[in-house]
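Appendix C: a fully annotated inverse folding record. The material below is reproduced so that readers can follow the format used throughout the book. The structure is listed first as tokens, followed by the designed sequence.
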């Protein structure tokens, strides 16, 4: 195919490095977001297996959690009206109630009950005084003024209320959510089926661990990166290996992958070199929505459709794979999994080091967050930001996001950072 036969090569955006037609990051995400919907298919899985899955229907509580008014402290349950306004009062202890048990009968004025944290409040009691604040002598309990009626009681349903929707459809089940499902006593929950994702690397230069390297060859790292990322996301991932820079072999691999996968991810061969066939093949088998984003790393990212599968052609450079994964592919797959992901958490800190930046693209530089001598949170660059330096990601704990129009950034300037890790999974 000559250059003028090729609709993609004819697009002036493909030839210029300073490309006014490359999509700004926010516009590219909006295009992807509006194009994607949750995959069809819901299954009921046992509650523990729902970890990392996405709820397909809202969860409504059939019970109050906690199920009964209960003590928040170990101490004595009593009637608020028996708290003295000054001095002290002596109450009679008529029994003990432990968590998991109930007390027959009901408190009268002047009575109290020994109670443990979590035990149901005895009938007639509305207040708990912690044991450190009383003096006990046989069945006599002396309480002093200063306690407040109603204190230290957790009302039934203070966590989850019967009849209430407690988790929305589209919620990913993480640590707290699994605990909540447990607290409702649910045996199984409805979740979207797992997303089927096929991934492969392209390039004649790539070898897989276990074989030796001839001159010009390198080991494939992108399939390892993508394997890790897909595992963490909970996708049903199929590794299709390395495909050579051979258009026929690639076309076959694309068609095979699209025949069973909801999403296909490739890396390499998406730029403008003579062996960069990805976009042509996507256009032959389906269509390319767009393929250039004003970002670095990760400018050539081809997004499109082949049959029923969504297709993500990532650039070959290993850091570009990481950047495009986190900024686009992962949120896109989460949308297909049934979530509506929020933009990544971003906060502003001072950069302790100067940062080089070219206007006209959003840059995702790699940074390390730390406290400076004054205790202020600052970020420093991991150093060289080349798209082939995967170590720049391993050393980092955040992306430093430098906006489209910004140029070089002086040390001491406030910048946006996106931390890699949240507190909870
Ligand atoms: N004339 C131009 N050249 C390049 C442009 C451009 O606009 N005009 N864009 C550059 C940018 S930015 C990127 S990113 C790369 C992306 O190119 P490709 O997606 O076509 O990737 P390849 O050329 O196949 O590979 C790039 C680089 O990454 C290495 N690689 C590829 N796959 C793997 C893998 N699985 N594991 C480890 N390393 C891999 C490959 O050997 C190359 O060194 O294009 C620029 N060029
Ligand atoms: O944008 Mo490329 O992804 O710089 O290396």
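Designed amino acids, in order:
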């Amino acid at each position: 195919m000559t250059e003028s036969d090729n609709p993609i090569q004819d697009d002036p955006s493909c030839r210029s490095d300073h490309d006014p037609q490359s999509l700004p990051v926010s516009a590219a995400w909006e295009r992807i977001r509006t194009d994607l919907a949750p995959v069809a298919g819901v299954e009921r899985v046992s509650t523990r297996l729902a970890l990392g899955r996405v709820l397909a229907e809202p969860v409504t509580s059939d019970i109050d959690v906690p199920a009964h008014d209960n003590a928040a402290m170990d101490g004595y349950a009593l009637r608020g009206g028996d708290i003295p306004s000054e001095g002290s009062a002596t109450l009679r202890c008529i029994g003990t109630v432990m968590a998991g048990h109930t007390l027959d009968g009901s408190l009268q004025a002047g009575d109290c009950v020994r109670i443990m944290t979590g035990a149901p409040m005895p009938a007639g009691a509305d207040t708990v005084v912690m044991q450190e604040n009383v003096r006990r002598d046989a069945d006599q309990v002396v309480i002093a003024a200063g306690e407040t009626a109603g204190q230290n009681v957790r009302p039934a349903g203070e966590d989850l209320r019967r009849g209430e929707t407690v988790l929305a459809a589209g919620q990913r089940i993480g640590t707290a959510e699994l605990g909540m499902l447990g607290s409702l006593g649910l045996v199984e929950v409805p979740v979207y089926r797992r997303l089927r994702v096929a991934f492969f690397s392209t390039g004649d230069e790539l070898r897989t661990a276990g074989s030796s390297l001839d001159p010009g060859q390198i080991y494939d790292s992108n399939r390892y990166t993508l394997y890790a990322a897909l595992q963490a996301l909970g996708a049903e991932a199929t590794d299709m290996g390395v495909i050579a820079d051979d258009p026929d072999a690639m076309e076959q691999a694309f068609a095979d992958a699209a025949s069973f996968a909801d999403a296909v991810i490739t890396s390499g061969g998406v730029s403008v070199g003579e062996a960069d066939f990805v976009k042509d093949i996507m256009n032959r088998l389906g269509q390319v929505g767009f393929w250039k984003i004003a970002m670095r790393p990760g400018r050539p990212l081809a997004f499109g459709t082949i049959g029923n599968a969504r297709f993500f052609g990532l650039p070959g450079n290993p850091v570009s794979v990481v950047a495009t994964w986190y900024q686009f592919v992962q949120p896109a797959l989460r949308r297909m999994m049934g979530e509506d992901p929020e933009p990544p958490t971003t906060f502003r800190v001072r950069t302790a080091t100067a940062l080089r930046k070219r206007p006209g693209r959003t840059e995702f530089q790699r940074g390390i967050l730390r406290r400076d001598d004054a205790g202020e949170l600052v970020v420093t660059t991991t150093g060289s930001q080349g798209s082939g330096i995967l170590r720049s990601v391993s050393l980092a704990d955040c992306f430093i996001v430098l906006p489209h129009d910004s140029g070089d950034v002086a040390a001491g300037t406030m910048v946006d950072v996106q931390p890699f890790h949240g507190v909870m999974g």
